[in-house]
Amino acid sequence: MPDSITDSAQPVTTGPIPGSCKVYVADDRHGGLRVPFREVPLTGGEPPVRLPDPSGPYTDPAAAINLEAGLDRLRAGWIAARGDVADDPAPFNAPLAPADIPAFPAPPRPLAGVAGTAPTQRAYARAGIVTPEMTYAAIRENLGRAETGDDAITPAYVRDEIAAGRALLPANINHPEAEPMVIGRNFLVKINANLGTSPLASSVGDEVDKMVWAIRWGSDTVMDLSTGRGIHPVREWVLRNAPVPVGTVPLYEALDRAGGDPADLTWEIFRDTLIDQCRQGVDYFTIHAGVRLAHVPLTVDRTTGIVSRGGSIMARWCLAHHAENFLYERFDEICAILRRYDAAVSLGDGLRPGSVADANDAAQFAELDTLGELTRHAWERDVQVMVEGPGHVPLDKVVANMRRQEKACDEAPFYTLGPLTTDVAPGYDHITGAVGAAVIGSHGCAMLCYVTPKEHLGLPDRDDVKQGVIAYRIAAHAADLAKGHPAARAHDDAMAKARFEFRWADQFNLALDPETARAYHDATLPHDAHKTAHFCSMCGPKYCAMAISHDVKDAAEKDAGMREMARRFREGGGALYPEAGAEAP
Amino acid sequence: MPDSITDSAQPVTTGPIPGSCKVYVADDRHGGLRVPFREVPLTGGEPPVRLPDPSGPYTDPAAAINLEAGLDRLRAGWIAARGDVADDPAPFNAPLAPADIPAFPAPPRPLAGVAGTAPTQRAYARAGIVTPEMTYAAIRENLGRAETGDDAITPAYVRDEIAAGRALLPANINHPEAEPMVIGRNFLVKINANLGTSPLASSVGDEVDKMVWAIRWGSDTVMDLSTGRGIHPVREWVLRNAPVPVGTVPLYEALDRAGGDPADLTWEIFRDTLIDQCRQGVDYFTIHAGVRLAHVPLTVDRTTGIVSRGGSIMARWCLAHHAENFLYERFDEICAILRRYDAAVSLGDGLRPGSVADANDAAQFAELDTLGELTRHAWERDVQVMVEGPGHVPLDKVVANMRRQEKACDEAPFYTLGPLTTDVAPGYDHITGAVGAAVIGSHGCAMLCYVTPKEHLGLPDRDDVKQGVIAYRIAAHAADLAKGHPAARAHDDAMAKARFEFRWADQFNLALDPETARAYHDATLPHDAHKTAHFCSMCGPKYCAMAISHDVKDAAEKDAGMREMARRFREGGGALYPEAGAEAP
Questions:
Q1: pLDDT, tens digit, for every residue of A541-584?
Q2: Which of A49, A107, A481, B107 is a good FRET partner for B435, with 20 to 30 A between their CA atoms?
Q3: A454 to chain B: which residues are within 8 Å by CB?
Q4: pLDDT > 90: what percent of chain A?
């Protein structure tokens, strides 16, 4: 990483994950597409396994990475070809950045939709158009399999889900570097990693590094939640180098511009901040328009009050002015802005519960009903929508959150943080959260916002980011399996087969984190010969169930009667020796 | 730890968990009981919080720990007073231990039930007797609260659950060192940690150390799965120093005695091994009596065959002899042995699935039906029972396992391993498993066998044991909350209150792992002053939602109308300003 933006010794990590290759599936629609995957070549005559890959060019050894130039502008031609956008030459409203924070060298000129058009994927979908973005996203969902068979996800299906509001394809026209992906209940469950500087820690270089690191391990989007100094230039560096959709909470920067006191916020400050961020290319915005004045009293008797930063800021503003939330009052104007750039709205759950005690309470659900109103409102204006959800929720209340959101918000994609299923494990909230995330994902939640081990304790570092991403990849994949996503099972089956055949290297390479899997095996059996051994250090050679199981299988296969016995067992309704009657012990 | 049994530099860890005290609740029933808890004193005028504590005297600074003498024989007097046991003076059948493995200095003389009696907690419960063990376990379930109120767990209730077979209280008469605890769907969800030497790694000292370490972090039982050299003396050291029930898989030692080839196993070798282990004091035995000859063919077309060690050994034996499993054939004799010592049977799931692909298949459920038969059989002989379950199960099939086990086994306690909800994350299977464990626990599974990060890769070390225990404590507690166990919520509520009041030290001390929680906070805010600060490094002072939330609360409380507004909101069916009609944005 160039010195100009980093004070970290760690440059961004490039090159493929060990044991995997970057591959591209070529498609000749829309003038030609090249869609990236992580592919794991296998031994033993097994076909390679293709996995989702949000890591962008950083894992492609053939790609030249230059952070100061930013990534290739993949979508620029598609955007221009639609003929509905034009240069948007006004200056940015952002205040001057602090002198010690470098500016991105040559930021692109912003575009905006021309008057009277809606350059949004939702508008295209409703007009029946299949965009290159939709085709690209469909190929990703299929993991590059041919679109044959009843279970293939076609571009037309992606379009129809977006038109119905059940999915969104976050794709700001000013973020053409992003590789298109789709978020919705009928697609692979996605995960998001939160990054960003804090007033107390981190730097531009660290944040770009963490972004690259998070997508390397499988984060499908990132949110830049910077609240420190130089929010505008930090975001520019992140966007220009991010191959995934980037979300923000514009209220944080607006509060900074207002001087730090929520009471001093105004619609005008917020609006100018939002426009700046749209013009930089932010793909989705958390907007806390559902925290209405009348909801605030419902939080007074809570155990943990309001734990959303944005929610607490807007509640403070409402009380200070004894006025309705201006984000709610001005939601029409917000939609008009978002529509010009195809920035999606992620309706913030400012009143989400911050403890098991507050889960599913009146404040939370009052806000959710308002988010339903706002969802329909944004859809009418062709703005893409998702809806944010909690938070801290005990397991017996998780599914009710999903069902209620579906109903209140007409199946708009749900995007939840956590849900943490207990409050008692600080230091391990990636696990308390993965439990809730897997469950809500399996019931239809479209995107899971990760939680790191540092949640409730401090700003996550690089290793925390990885731990959070892996835990949430596990949750998302467990949910995909449970939902029966057509492409999910192949990965597990390849791993299971590699296990049963003692192909250790294949097991490591197929792992979500091959480096850790191999290191753990090396801890007791470091030699190359051990990587083909028919046992491991857990049981040793004599007690290895799978090794014995091979003997069982061999013996059974020699015995022509074994399969016949199995057939009779099944047909006999599970009785043992059905002819002879069940034997009592 | 004395040199004689250790080649490890790490002595066993003693002293309380930082920020917690060892306390005892005194009770005057049964001549006086002292029941241990972990208690967390709090600041801010809050009452202390009492937590379950299986760690025994090791966390009591007043206790003198002498591994060569073993723990105090807490239950010896209760056992003797019942008058149904006598010395069992026959020599052990075990072969001579290897010379380099030290013997426990003065092993106690074994006891056995006198002819015609059944000295089991199940027999006592069915006779209407409340034993000291049941009262002790009830006090633990209540976390020492007075037995008032409808939700108290009384000794009589513990007795009734044991009599119904819905619970067991593992308490071999030769393991009087164990502090009584109860396992069943209507009690706190328990967890087990697997330990034990492997032919390739570990030593006696390491295993005693890991046992103490596992219970320190909250493991309610341990299983000694040693398969290396000196299985008998290793187990003696573990039992004499274990304040929790200890389980084993006697087949492992039997196979060792048979010379290592499953085909050479005999009923006599198994029987002699089982009797030895009963006489040492093993509290529960995994017995793979459900792997019947007719089930074996059902595994031939599986993706991962048989992955249970015991299951593969018995399947191999069945095929080698083309004969029915002798554990099934001799189950009556097994029950007669177990009954003499009050050793419980944990019916092994030798055909559990080893991959998502094999979950809930014919082999698994055929065996489960057999386990149901065997459950009823053991109950009739007054042997306490639990039933083991999978394994690898995708989330959509987890609950079906619980429901089917309940039905097949008449609500005998279910004890599951995993369930791992995906196969693709070696290195993180404590997380893939915690997801499944929390879900099955919340649906009634009584005990969760932990999985460590090393699962599928190697023998767990000390840190792996801790990671596995904490992940499964999270799962068990999340399940307890979901089940509404009356004592579970107080812990979360105390944590939530400490969070909202910025009592950082209280938060650390209330954590499942206070050391890690504090270390993570120290990573960015190490100074003492930060431990009372109204923010952390995640958001910094200006963006702390909870700090702002206090302002909101203060403002709201000054405004006498706020609570009234909340009341009207709730009564208005959730409409905003019901008098004025809902405002459209």
A1: 777 888 888 888 787 777 767 777 777 777 766 554 434 333 33
A2: A49
A3: 520, 523, 538
A4: 79
Q: Which of B366, B377, B428 sits opposite A569 (nearest CB)?
A: B366
Confidence of residue A1 (pLDDT cuts 50, 70, 90): very low
- 8 A C-beta contact, residue A165 and residue A378: no
Tell me the shortest Cα–Cα distance from A130 to chain B, in angstroms.
32
pLDDT at residue A579 in the model: 41
d(CA A20, CA A441): 27
Q: Report how far residue A124's alpha carbon sits from residue A131's, in angstroms, rounded to the nearest whole number.
A: 7
pLDDT (average), residues B202-214: 89
Positive or negative, the Cα torsion across A180, A185, A189, A190?
positive
Chain B contacts of A362, Cβ < 8 Å? 566, 569-570, 574
- Residue from A289, A354, A294, A367 nearest B571 by CA: A294
What is the spatial distance between Cα B93 and Cα B499, in angstroms, rounded to a whole number? 57
How far B170 CA sits from the closest chain A CA (Å)?
Answer: 24
Rounded distance, CA A81 to CA B501, Å?
56
Chain B residues with CB under 8 Å of A546 CB are 304-307, 312, 354
A383: nearest Cα among A162, A128, A203, A187: A162
Q: Name the residue facing B585 among A201, A332, A508 (closest C-beta).
A: A332
Q: What is the DSSP letter of A148?
A: -
- At residue A548, the pLDDT reads 83
At B352, give phi and psi (nearest 5°): -60, 150
ipTM summary value: 0.94
What average pLDDT score do residues A208-230 get? 94
Helices (H) and strands (E) in chain A, counts: 20, 15
pLDDT tens readout for residues A244-282: 999 999 999 999 999 999 999 999 999 999 999 999 999
Q: At what angle do helices B204-216 and B231-240 cross, to 10 degrees?
A: 40
Q: Which residue of B has its CA nearest to A317?
A: B552
User: A117-131, A217-231, B18-32: which range is least confident on average?
Assistant: A217-231
* pLDDT confidence of residue A121: 98
| Residues B458, A542: C-beta atoms closer than 8 Å | no
The H or E element containing residue A36 is: strand A33-40
Verify whether the Cβ–Cβ distance A305 to B546 is below 8 Å: yes
In chain B, which residue's Cα lies nearest the Cα of A375?
A: B585
Token reading at A50: 């293709």
DSSP-derived letter for residue B532 is: G
| Residue A101 host element (H or E) | none
Nearest to A428 by CA among B474, B181, B231: B474
pLDDT-derived band at B578, boundaries 50, 70, 90? very low
Kindly state the tokens that stand for B581.
Answer: 């009609």
Rounded Cα–Cα distance for residues A480 and A503 (Å): 25
> What is the pTM for the complete model shown?
0.95
Answer yes or no: are the C-beta atoms of A498 and A528 closer than 8 Å. Answer: no
Average pLDDT over residues A462-471: 97
What digits encode the pLDDT tens for the residues A504-536? Answer: 999 999 999 999 999 999 988 888 888 877 777
Residues in chain B with CB shorter than 8 Å from the CB of A484 are 396
Query: Which residues of B fall within a CB distance of 8 Å from A377?
Result: 585
- Rounded distance between C-alpha atoms, residue B456 and residue A508, angstroms: 11
- Taking contacts as CB-CB distances below 8 angstroms, the residues of chain A near B492 are 355-357, 422-424
> In this predicted structure, what is the pLDDT of residue B573?
62
Chain pair A-B, CB pairs under 8 angstroms:
493
The pLDDT of residue B199:
64
Nearest-CB residue to A438 (from B198, B435, B523):
B435
- The per-residue pLDDT of chain B, averaged, comes to 92
**By CA distance, what is B490's nearest residue in A?**
A357
* Order of strands across the sheet that contains B21-27: B21-27, B33-40, B49-51
